[in-house]
């Protein structure tokens, strides 16, 4: 098989890039290890910045997002009896975020690729990039007993944190930066009315909690849990009781509980690898960097990688200009690190760290007090939350 751009990973990064390239007449093949049902069964991001939404529209995939997604002009931070609204719209001069699930967004991207006859190959086993230090790279994957070869000009690694792409870069050429947090997020999805029309990020001596949503009939809640906890330890009843304890009393009193339709634990990690390009291999999204979910940056950081790569590939194929490809890693990383800083800051601000000293907890309280009292501090938070320009 032959294509121009071989993409590993059929998550949002890979699908969005494939669709954008298609609209510019550039051919790609997406190799996805899992089945489509499996990919669509993962419950992940819920908050999209306007830059991501714009890119979805540019990919002609934004129609349902614009119809069914909710525009949020603000959110709340609850701390020590105070509920502070962060007025995103007013603080950023008119920006906002869209609440639209990653599952739905992925469904829309699949639909667009299908409609255009795009090649998204599921259940591709043992995907391997080859000859990435040459100008004739290729991919192989296994289907049953057959090994299939895909020749291409470029390989794009969009295969998430645990994928194979990053591992194909020689270890001595890669610098990794990492922070692993001593807790995870236990998330529950339930067919209940959300407790608040806008998100609530809540601090509590027992740990962080987040009230989010997918629609007015679908709620998404998270609580901070120790890393050693397993989903089996958390019955629905235990989850709701713990969530209520961590929310302001008036919010807890209004919380509508119900059976969970999904429950999972996500560990929290900050990670960046540099560079994001090696030879003919380019990394994008979670394959190159991970953030703790607190600032809702992960998918949004993936979007800027896709944006830079898309333009770089168009310049290469349409204008014979390789500057975008050459500058990709440095350009993408500059924005990635801003997302890293913000996610680390928001995680540090809002979580209870098991080994924190009394001094560190006082600083945390002071940081929150400053945020609640300073419009400038809120403006900085808002500017980062809605997304810095690409
Ligand atoms: P992925 O979504 O991980 O996709 C990678 C794909 O590659 C997968 O389909 C995988 O099956 C496939 N793959 C892996 N290995 C191979 C292989 N060897 N061969 C072929 N295919 C392979 N981000 C936000 O911006 N906003 C939020 O509100 C937000 N909330 C989050 C909440 C939670 C609980 C979590 C866990 C994450 C959240 N994120 C959020 C982060 C966001 O979900 C990720 O950043 C996003 O999924 C990254 O997309 P991706 O396409 O780069 O990677
Ligand atoms: C969601 C996830 C986040 O990380 C976040 O900051 C806000 C919302 C969500 O899954 O709804």
Textual characterization of the structure:
This protein has 390 residues and is of the alpha+beta class. It is 37% helix and 28% strand. It contains 12 helices and 20 strands. The chain has helices spanning 12-23, 36-41, 50-58, 63-68, 88-91, 102-115, 236-246, 249-254, 298-319, 323-350, 358-373, 375-386; strands at 5-8, 28-31, 47-49, 70-72, 74-79, 82-87, 97-99, 119-121, 125-130, 138-143, 146-151, 154-157, 175-190, 200-202, 209-215, 218-226, 260-274, 277-278, 281-283, 289-290. α1 (12-23) packs parallel to α9, α9 (298-319) runs antiparallel to α10 and α11 crosses α12 (375-386). The radius of gyration is 21 Å and the shape is globular. The two termini are 34 Å apart. The structure holds flavin-adenine dinucleotide and 3,4-dihydroxybenzoic acid (DHB). Residues 8-14, 31-34, 39, 44-47, 102, 124, 127, 158-160, 162-164, 185, 187, 266, 285-286, 293, 296-300, 302 line the site of flavin-adenine dinucleotide.
Question: What tags apply to this protein structure?
Answer:
single chain, binds 3,4-dihydroxybenzoic acid, 8-stranded mixed sheet, 6-stranded mixed sheet, globular, 12 helices, binds flavin-adenine dinucleotide
């Amino acid at each position: 098989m032959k294509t121009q751009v071989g993409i590993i990973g059929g998550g949002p990064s890979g699908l969005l890039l494939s669709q954008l390239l298609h609209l510019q007449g550039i051919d790609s093949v997406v190799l996805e290890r899992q089945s489509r049902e499996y990919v669509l069964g993962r419950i992940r991001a819920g908050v999209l910045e306007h830059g991501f939404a714009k890119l979805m529209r540019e990919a002609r995939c934004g129609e349902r997002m614009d119809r069914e997604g909710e525009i949020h002009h603000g959110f709340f931070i609850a701390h020590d009896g105070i509920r502070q609204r962060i007025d995103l719209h007013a603080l950023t001069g008119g920006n906002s975020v869209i609440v639209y699930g990653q599952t739905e967004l992925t469904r829309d991207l699949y639909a667009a690729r299908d409609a255009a006859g795009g090649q998204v190959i599921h259940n591709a086993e043992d995907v391997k990039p080859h000859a990435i230090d040459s100008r004739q790279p290729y991919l192989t994957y296994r289907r049953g007993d057959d090994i299939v070869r895909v020749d291409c000009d470029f390989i794009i690694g969009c295969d998430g944190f645990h994928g194979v792409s990053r591992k194909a870069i020689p270890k001595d050429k890669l610098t990794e930066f990492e922070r692993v947090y001593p807790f995870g997020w236990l998330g529950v999805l339930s067919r209940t009315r959300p407790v608040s029309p806008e998100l609530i990020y809540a601090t509590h001596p027992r740990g962080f909690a987040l009230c989010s949503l997918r629609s007015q009939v679908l709620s998404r809640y998270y609580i901070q849990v120790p890393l050693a906890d397993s989903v089996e330890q958390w019955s629905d009843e235990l989850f709701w009781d713990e969530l209520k304890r961590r929310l302001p009393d008036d919010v807890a009193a209004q919380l509508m509980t119900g059976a969970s339709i999904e429950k999972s634990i996500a560990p929290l990690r900050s990670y960046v690898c540099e560079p994001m390009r090696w030879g003919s291999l380019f990394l994008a999204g979670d394959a190159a960097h991970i953030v703790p979910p607190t600032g809702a940056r992960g998918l949004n950081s993936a979007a800027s990688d896709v944006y830079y790569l898309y333009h770089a590939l168009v310049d290469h194929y349409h204008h014979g200009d390789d500057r975008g490809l050459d500058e990709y890693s440095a350009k993408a990383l500059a924005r990635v690190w801003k997302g890293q800083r913000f996610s680390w800051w928001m995680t540090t601000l809002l979580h209870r760290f098991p080994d924190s000293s009394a001094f560190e907890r006082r600083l945390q309280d002071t940081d929150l007090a400053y945020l609640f009292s300073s419009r400038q501090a809120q403006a900085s938070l808002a500017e980062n939350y809605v997304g810095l320009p690409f």
